[in-house]
């Protein structure tokens, strides 16, 4: 694989506590701006993984970890909001296959506390820990090689960077120009809180259009993945199932600029490609390629398996507001956005009519420019909307005459 085709990595040290949107902006906007500026390329698209180190998991055992879903989801939402704002300022496209001057960013959380350091007896282990969130050692072992590694110039940033490099030793030969220091922001930390932990579930479902997969979609898909309860590979249990209902083409005919709506197959494959960045786990990293193995089991039914078959992702075509939630009985939880809150209630009403159990409903934060900084310029706020709205992305592509659509797979 050519170096220019590889994704880059931005290592972000511990977030402020509490992780409010303004405090996250003060801490992370400078390094995110520096990385996106470096990766913006008029001749092609770039990929960036933003890895945030924080002690997000609790539990005494490697394989029995839990997390606070509201805390993890809010942190991811805050960072995607910053990415969208900065992309608006720099005129960077954010969607998958965004063409020239685009940066396709993925935010991941890395379970790593301030007191964790590299030790001489460390042996990397590719192990599931009951959640999709990895510790720093496993992440360094399973995710490589990188085009660039950006690290923050601060005491915490340097400590994280040095520990990461020790864990990653021998995985990739890095040239000096691939290691890029960037300025950090201001971080204020109080005594870390210990929020209540969230139950995880064997089967999670959510739905959407997922046209031109953008930061709002990425937040929704990541938040759902956080709720998966991963079985141990030696337990003999069925895989954790992540079912994503994706609106069929026939329901999108009346959308604005409908001629630029991506085909269902493209949208479904982009969902699985994005999720693979959160779910793949292999000591070989990307030596076998970046794209996951996807099975087409029927018309409007794509599937992929990850982590030795312990996770199954299924994308199904939906032609009504309910999708698989009223055709698959053994779903445990439903993830919704603020705009589809009422849909969650309707789903449960329908399941009750069928004599099925109601689903636990989890609502994902809205990406909002106003919560980042009150003095944000109006043109930046308008640009922000174009980064998190499929209709705005179609509008932009229509005005560009359809150039660089990137919809062929």
TrEMBL record:
Alphabetical list of Gene3D superfamilies matching this protein: HUPs
InterPro entries from the xrefs? Rossmann-like_a/b/a_fold
Q: Which GO terms describe its molecular function?
A: dephospho-CoA kinase activity
Q: Single Gene Ontology BP term?
A: coenzyme A biosynthetic process
PANTHER family, alphabetized: BIFUNCTIONAL COENZYME A SYNTHASE-RELATED (PTHR10695:SF46), DEPHOSPHO-COA KINASE-RELATED (PTHR10695)
Identify this protein by name: Cytidyltransferase-like domain-containing protein
């Amino acid at each position: 694989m050519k170096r220019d085709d590889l994704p880059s990595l931005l290592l972000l040290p511990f977030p402020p506590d509490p992780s409010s949107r303004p405090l996250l902006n003060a801490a992370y906007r400078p390094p995110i701006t520096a990385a996106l500026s470096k990766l913006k390329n008029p001749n092609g698209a770039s990929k960036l993984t933003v890895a945030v180190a924080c002690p997000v998991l609790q539990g005494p055992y490697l394989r029995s970890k839990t997390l606070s879903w509201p805390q993890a989801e809010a942190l991811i939402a805050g960072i995607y909001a910053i990415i969208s704002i900065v992309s608006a300022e720099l005129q960077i496209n954010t969607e998958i296959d965004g063409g020239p001057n685009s940066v396709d960013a993925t935010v991941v959380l890395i379970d790593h506390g301030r007191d964790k350091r590299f030790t001489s007896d460390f042996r990397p282990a590719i192990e599931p820990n009951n959640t999709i969130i990895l510790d720093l050692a496993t992440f360094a072992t399973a995710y490589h090689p990188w085009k660039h590694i950006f690290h923050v110039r601060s005491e915490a940033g340097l400590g994280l960077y040095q520990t990461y490099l020790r864990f990653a030793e021998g995985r990739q030969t890095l040239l000096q120009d691939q290691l890029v220091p960037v300025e950090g922001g201001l971080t204020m930390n109080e005594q870390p809180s210990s929020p209540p932990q969230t139950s995880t579930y064997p089967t999670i479902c959510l739905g959407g259009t997922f046209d031109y997969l953008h930061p709002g979609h990425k937040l929704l898909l990541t938040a759902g993945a956080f709720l998966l309860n991963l079985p141990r590979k030696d337990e003999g249990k069925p895989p954790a199932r992540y079912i994503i209902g994706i609106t069929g083409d026939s329901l999108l005919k009346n959308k604005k600029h409908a001629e630029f709506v991506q085909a269902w197959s493209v949208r479904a494959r982009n969902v699985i490609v994005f999720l693979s960045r959160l779910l793949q786990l292999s000591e070989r990293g990307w030596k076998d390629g970046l794209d996951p193995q996807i099975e087409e089991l029927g018309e409007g039914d794509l599937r992929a398996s990850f982590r030795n078959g312990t996770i199954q992702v299924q994308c199904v075509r939906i032609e009504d507001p309910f999708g698989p939630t009223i055709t698959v009985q053994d779903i445990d939880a439903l993830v919704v956005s603020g705009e589809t809150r009422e849909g969650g209630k309707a789903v449960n009403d329908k399941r009750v009519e069928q004599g099925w159990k109601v689903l636990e409903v989890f609502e994902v934060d809205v990406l909002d420019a106003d919560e980042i900084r009150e003095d944000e310029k109006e043109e930046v706020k308008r640009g922000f909307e174009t980064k998190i709205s499929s209709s705005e992305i179609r509008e932009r592509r229509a005005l560009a005459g359809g150039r660089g659509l990137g919809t062929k797979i």
